[in-house]
Specification:
The complex is a heterodimer of chains A (about 120) and B (about 110).
Chain A: E1 3-7, E2 11-12, E3 18-25, E4 35-41, E5 47-53, E6 59-61, E7 69-74, E8 79-84, E9 93-100, E10 106-109, E11 113-117
Parallel strand pairs in A: 2-11
Antiparallel strand pairs in A: 1-3, 3-8, 4-5, 4-9, 5-6, 7-8, 9-10, 9-11
Chain B: E1 4-7, E2 10-13, E3 19-25, E4 33-38, E5 45-49, E6 53-54, E7 62-67, E8 70-75, E9 84-90, E10 97-98, E11 102-106
Parallel strand pairs in B: 2-11
Antiparallel strand pairs in B: 1-3, 3-8, 4-5, 4-9, 5-6, 7-8, 9-10, 9-11
The chains are: A mainly beta (about 120), B mainly beta (about 110).
Chain lengths: ~120, ~110
Amino acid sequence: QVQLQESGPGLVKPSQTLSLTCTVSGGSISSGDHYWNWIRQHPGKGLEWIGHIYDSGSTYYNPSLKSRLTISVDTSKNQFSLKLSSVTAADTAVYYCARVTGDHSMDVWGQGTTVTVSS
Amino acid sequence: DIQMTQSPSSLSASVGDRVTITCRASQSISTYLNWYQQKPGKAPKVLMHATFNLQSGVPSRFSGSGSGTDFTLTISSLQPEDFATYYCQQSYNTPFTFGPGTKVDIK
């Protein structure tokens, strides 16, 4: 079955760029039936949708993050990535990648990766 | 953005209890409403999609109802493994938004 795994630095300095990659295994990112999301969860808080990307490269971003956000896909590596620039302590969170199905539910999630923004 | 609210924010219940969690959207979202369960330190897990549809592998004690702006998740007989936080999420349009969560703990 399809599995997702986030990877990237766990510590990022303020004002720098947070970069994470989600590797898809057990299935193709280019299946066409799904699209690929990033979600984050601040410590002890609820879930915030960051954005998503289709295998075509089309993206949708949360307006609250749009000016700092880039989501990209590498179909040859079966991966998609997130870059969030000019980070502050407010970007400290657990970051999840997730697959969205045709009925727009997030049916497969990565285990999450904790990113701390601190000098 | 569509705002999602949930009530209650937390509840205490016993094994075997019937539990109902309510979710409300700030505008009509038809039936584009999903429910997730999250346990501490774990990723969320989808329980219900498109309001009524039980995700494969999820026990039938979970059910969902509603349309438009008001939705409910019902657990017919609470089991020990159901103690968790539950989130609703609208997928009607972007930005996708989640409710603040309902924590279900042991009475």
